[in-house]
Amino acid sequence: MSKKIADPGKGRCKGRLAGKVAIVTGSAGGIGRATAELFAQEGAKVVVADINESKGKQAAAEIRREGGEAIFMGLNVTREGNWQALMEATVKMYGKLNILVNNAGISQIADIENTTLDDWNAVLAVNATGVFLGTKYAIRAMKNNGELCSIINRSSIDGQVAEPHLFAYCASKGAVTTLTKSAALSCGARGYTIRVNSVHPAYVPTAMTQGEAAGYGIDEEEYRERMKTIHPIGVGEPLDVAYLDLYLAADESKWVTGAAFTIDGGVTAQ
User: Fold this and answer.
1) Dist. CA 139–CA 151, nearest whole Å
2) Which of 28, 35, 81, 92 is deepest in the core (most CB within 10 A)?
3) Beta strands 99-102 and 149-154: pairing type?
4) Can you tell me the distance from the alpha carbon of 35 to that of 24, in angstroms, rounded to the nearest whole number?
């Protein structure tokens, strides 16, 4: 069970997503789960979409126990048919789609010389192709619903700057950065009420960063301590990123599109 999200301050406006339908990919854990939980608290009907059925169902059940509305739908983001089925099922159940958070992602520790073609294809398939497919089919589902809609693509600071030992990951997140801008311009040119933006976190401890630690041959605690040294105000938490997702999902960001939002504790300011 994930830790219950605390309201950061009394008197904050609730129901910022009331009446909206949201899909959050990779939401069985980590940042995706925090975003799904927060969206439900703010009134959205949430589709927890993940390849991990058991953890995804647990996440949706926990949201319902806390008084939110959520269902689980299985999704392999690399498969076009999965995306088509997900969109069709969501619209059939709820009548529309307002929000997609393309959060699912993987990483691989290797520099360019040691990145295999299989590793490259696997990382790009999830992190870039998955975001392309999600964005494409979300636009098709959203464009005629007559409501303000938002697509939020999870990039990384590694989609803005680079690291030597995350070669395929950096390439995939760079692709997300610019495909987001292109999709935003396309929606604007066609007069769609759909905004498309990318969110670029630095280190946030999740199952993915546990895998990165293992790739470096260290444990998660040592990796976290290393990361603390390069983050001027400390490392982040999933909820920190979820609140940025909330802003971009809500109608208060209706004039924001094609933008890349850095949330990194000051890492890239150095």
Assistant:
1) 8
2) 35
3) parallel
4) 8
Helix, strand or coil for residue 191?
Answer: coil
Q: Token pair of 92, please?
A: 């059939």
Q: Name the amino acid, one letter, at 52.
A: N
Judge whether 192 counts as a catalytic residue: no
Looking up tokens 């709820």, which residue turns up? 94
Instruction: Look at phi and psi of residue 99 and say left if phi exceeds 0, alpha if psi is from -120 to 50, else beta.
Output: beta
Tens-level pLDDT at each residue, the chain (270 residues): 344 444 443 334 469 999 999 999 999 999 999 999 999 999 999 999 999 999 999 999 999 999 999 999 999 999 999 999 999 999 999 999 999 999 999 999 999 999 999 999 999 999 999 999 999 999 999 999 999 999 999 999 999 999 999 999 999 999 999 999 999 999 999 999 999 999 999 989 777 777 777 878 877 888 777 777 889 999 999 999 999 999 999 999 999 999 999 999 999 999
| Catalytic position from the list 137, 169, 203, 223 | 169
The one-letter amino acid code at 165 reads H
C-alpha span between 18 and 30 (Å, rounded): 24
3-state secondary structure (DSSP) of residue 195: strand
